Amino acid sequence: MKERIQKMEDGQDDMEQDDLLGWVLKHSNLSTEQILDLVLSLLFAGHETSSVAITLSIYFLQGSPAAVKQLQEEHLQIARAKKQSGEKELNWEDYKKMEFTQCVVSETLRLGNVVRFLHRKALKDVRYKGYDIPSGWKVLPVLAAVHLDSSHFDHPQHFNPWRWQQQAVCLVASGKRKKFNIERQSDGSPMPIRSWCSDRRTDVAYCTEQNSGSSGATNNYFMPFGGGPRLCAGSELAKLEMAVFIHHLVLNYHWELAEPDQAFAFPFVDFPKGLPIIVKHQPLL
Ligand code: HEM
């Protein structure tokens, strides 16, 4: 930063400097410390996290051909509709149709645990579930422990994006409760339960909608972006980045691991070999 400031003062400011750091130095009145915090936050909070998350999705998906196939179908439908209407760029409406992709994103974040734990400090003495936490002690809530807890997720070590699909719990003729995936209309919106449960399934007596997982909101069992007032500021952007990446990946490429590698999780998630993959250009459209 000092070098930059010196260059600016010496009038040696060129286009190479025309980046975030250059912009804040020129146009803001933030302190040096605030600028440093901003740049570091964007690099580590904003870049490392989403790139690791995307890497994890590549890794998990190569082990789940059924998920790749379902993604391809979802994205082909979107891409075909765009081609027909002569549009090119993805837009918000397309993103909203990426239902199964959201399941893949949630499952990647649950199993991958990009941010494994948070840092907190007790500001006063706290008694929690029989434990005394003295004021000033550091508390590390371990998000990964919740995401991999078998009392919240069946077979928690298994990559299963279908667990996030919206489901309806229905009472069937035999008197048992059964889960059904909610059917979708051509625009991707959920079909009213009544229209598919009673007309098409004679065994369904009564239905109550239930969301088996939540891809967006935080709940106590799924909080890859933290929660409360310090909820990740980039959570929606991160999910969008992942979805757009997956869109182009499954529509255009086939990939496999070049050599065995697996995520290593301490203290930060990373692949020791950098997850080398062999990529073939295989456009589906
Ligand atoms: C998959 C990607 C991401 C994950 C898993 C993630 C996770 C998190 C988590 C768990 C926190 C809360 C930290 C805490 O409570 O102590 C957080 C905070 C934050 N994240 Fe993200 N993040 C991701 C992507 C991004 C992106 C893309 C940006 C910005 C472009 C971003 C910006 C921030 C900022 C500024 C905070 C601090 C919010 C505050 O303290 O008020 N993150 N992130």
Describe this structure in words.
- The chain is globular.
- The protein has helices spanning 2-9, 20-27, 32-62, 65-85, 92-96, 99-112, 143-147, 193-200, 235-252, and strands spanning 120-121, 126-128, 131-133, 138-139, 166-172, 177-181, 204-211, 253-257, 277-281.
- Helix 4 packs across helix 9 (235-252).
- It has a three-stranded antiparallel sheet, with helices on one face.
- It has 285 residues and is of the alpha+beta class.
- The structure holds protoporphyrin IX containing FE.
- Protoporphyrin IX containing FE binds at residues 41, 45-46, 49-50, 53, 114-115, 118-119, 224-226, 230, 232-234, 237-238.
Mean pLDDT: 88
CATH topology of the largest domain: Cytochrome p450
Kindly provide the name of the CATH class of the largest domain. Answer: Mainly Alpha
* Proportion of helical residues: 40-55%
- Poorly predicted runs are 212-218
How far do the termini sit from each other?
A: 47 Å
Give me the number of helical elements.
9
Number of strands: 9
Named once each, the bound ligands are:
protoporphyrin IX containing FE
User: Could you say which overall geometry the principal axes of the C-alpha atoms support?
Assistant: globular
Strand content: 5-15%
Q: Could you state the order of secondary-structure elements as H and E?
A: HHHHHHEEEEHEEHEHEE
Rg to the nearest angstrom?
A: 23 Å
Name given to the CATH homologous superfamily of the largest domain = Cytochrome P450
- Main sheet overview: 3 strands, antiparallel
